[in-house]
Amino acid sequence: MNCLGGRLAPVLLLLASGHALAQLPPAQVNLNGTLGSRAALLVIDGQPRTVEVGASVQGVRLLAIEDGRAVVEYGGRRQSLTLGAAPGRVLSQGAAPPRQIVLPAGAGGHFTTMGMINGQVTSFLVDTGATSISIGQIEAEKLGLRYMYGKRIVTQTANGVVPAYQLQLASVRIGSVEVRDVEAIVIPGLMSHVLLGNSFLNRFQMRRENDVMTLELRY
């Protein structure tokens, strides 16, 4: 019996089929563990669910568990999820990749959101004044970033000029939208959020209406 839980890289299942299945929205599904061959721990749109083989939860049906993999069906399309696999994306035939992020303002009018860096979950704060995505050293270590191999630079912060490491993130994902090869810096200390700077934001057309920010992918 495999152990449930653990911080495992997610597999992303994005299925938006046409015709009779057009009502199904995309789903984000992670495989976090199995209970032998009878049940799996799936995280469906951020909600952990123990699903038995043959059962369906939120439109996701677990068909089988074999060799550490779970075979699921969603919107008429089957997908194999693997424990510890790198993030992947599957779209049904004819479906367009997701291109839009919608963020409501939170406390103090700030735009914060959960997302992923290189497949690991973190929290972001939109910062249009930051040149790059900025990550505190403690969070970078939690995310498993090998920032010490990055380029050593100095950067200006609210506390003055500090040393930093510059690196490329393989992927940054918010909701269903993923951007690859994004520049970031790691600075000393602890930060409450990862600052979502212009190395990410410049990939999008940004607009704000009242307390809602919409990011539309440019390319």
UniProtKB/TrEMBL annotation:
Keywords: Hydrolase, Protease, Signal. SUPFAM superfamilies: Acid proteases. GO terms for biological process: proteolysis. One of its GO terms (molecular function) is peptidase activity. Residues 1-22 form the signal peptide. The keyword DNA-binding does not apply. It comes from Roseateles saccharophilus. InterPro entries: Aspartic_peptidase_AS, Clan_AA_Asp_peptidase_C, Peptidase_aspartic_dom_sf, Retropepsin-like_bacterial. This is Aspartyl protease family protein.
